[in-house]
């Protein structure tokens, strides 16, 4: 196993060789993105205003959107995390993926946003994975690259293990393998995530506070210029059910060596929701996996360092195409 530090990006490849990932210097203006803030919000609004479609999967209706070139393009499905809706993906990421011959599928997990909660099946990581498989089948997609963020990365792992034929390349963003071996969050973070009794607006602000390091917040008082605020939301009740599903998840630490897909593990070194130490367990146990840790980045690193995040993902996807 080898490691290289390049412009604040730490890359580990467990195949025994190192890859130099092109990246922007950490010395650049921390506020910089690929576009000015007005352009960012314009792109975010375009995604938010894109009409969603719905398909029935089991006992629920799943709301989804497609972004990209359509027929002939390679599909990639993005799975959101706790308390997130599909319109919270960074529009710069969706633009990058869709311009690289991908059809991007974003969707709301069971009960979140515009997707219904159903009434017969329990909320669990396994069930969320089943829902995702059902969506792929309903869209007649035989195989897709998969990107999972936080809770979505847990779902992605289950998907890769239970339906390996459905998954091309696998990207685990802000992830861990759960269970007793997982490196826990601080008591303060656990308290914030578990308190879903507050009003939705207050709850959203609390969740945003967990996405970025304190130092970055202070340096970026205009952070909302680079953070999409979707029209849809996740109710406190559904947040509670998602949190319970995560708490009950037995994890994949013992089974992830069976993952055969090329896998990218990417995390911020200052992530307090899924501590970066968890990524080391993943890269040690998943064959053909890469690990990228972005220095000074938090759980919301795709907003914090969009150029670096997108460049790493595209390098990985192109390498494994």
Give your account of this protein's structure.
The protein is built from eleven helices and ten strands. With 321 residues, it is of the alpha/beta class. It has a single domain, classed as Alpha/Beta hydrolase fold, catalytic domain (Rossmann fold, 3-Layer(aba) Sandwich), CATH 3.40.50.1820. A ten-stranded mixed beta sheet has the order 1-2-10-9-8-7-5-6-4-3, with helices on both faces. Helix 2 (91-98) packs parallel to helix 11 (306-319) and helix 3 packs across helix 4. Residues 1-7 and 15-35 have low confidence and may be disordered.
What proportion of the residues form beta strands (DSSP E)?
15-25%
Task: Characterize the main sheet.
Answer: 10 strands, mixed
Q: Classify the secondary structure makeup into a structural class.
A: alpha/beta
Radius of gyration: 18 Å
Helicity, as a percent range: 25-40%
Number of helical stretches of at least 4 residues: 11
**Distance between the terminal alpha carbons, to the nearest Å?**
23 Å
Shape: globular
**What is the fourth-level CATH superfamily?**
Alpha/Beta hydrolase fold, catalytic domain
């Amino acid at each position: 196993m080898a490691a290289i530090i390049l412009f604040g990006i730490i890359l580990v490849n467990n195949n025994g060789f190192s890859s130099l990932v092109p990246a922007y210097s950490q010395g650049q203006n921390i506020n910089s993105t690929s576009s000015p803030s007005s352009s960012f919000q314009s792109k975010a609004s375009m995604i938010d205003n894109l009409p969603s479609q719905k398909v029935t999967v089991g006992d629920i209706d799943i709301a989804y959107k497609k972004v990209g070139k359509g027929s002939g393009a390679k599909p990639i499905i993005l799975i959101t995390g706790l308390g997130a809706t599909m319109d919270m993906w960074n529009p710069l990421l969706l633009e990058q993926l869709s311009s690289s011959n991908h059809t991007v599928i974003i969707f709301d997990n069971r009960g979140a946003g515009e997707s219904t909660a159903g009434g017969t099946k329990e909320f669990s990581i396994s069930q969320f994975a089943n829902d995702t498989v059902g969506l792929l089948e309903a869209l007649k997609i035989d195989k897709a690259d998969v990107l999972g963020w936080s809770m979505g990365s847990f779902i992605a792992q289950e998907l890769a293990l239970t339906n390996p034929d459905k998954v091309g390349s696998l990207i685990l963003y802000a992830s861990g393998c759960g269970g007793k071996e997982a490196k826990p969050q601080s008591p303060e973070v656990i308290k914030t995530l578990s308190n879903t009794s507050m009003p939705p607006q207050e709850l959203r602000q609390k969740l945003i506070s967990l996405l970025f390091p304190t130092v970055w917040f202070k340096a970026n008082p205009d952070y909302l210029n680079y953070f999409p605020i979707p029209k849809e939301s996740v109710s406190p009740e559904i947040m509670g059910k998602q949190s319970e599903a995560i708490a009950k998840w037995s994890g994949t630490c013992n089974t992830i060596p069976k993952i055969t897909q090329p896998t990218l593990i990417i995390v911020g070194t200052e992530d307090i929701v899924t501590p970066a130490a968890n990524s080391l367990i993943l890269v040690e146990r998943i064959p053909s996996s890469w690990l990228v840790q972005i220095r000074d980045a938090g759980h919301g690193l795709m907003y914090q360092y969009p150029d670096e995040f997108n460049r790493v993902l595209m390098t990985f996807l192109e390498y494994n195409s």
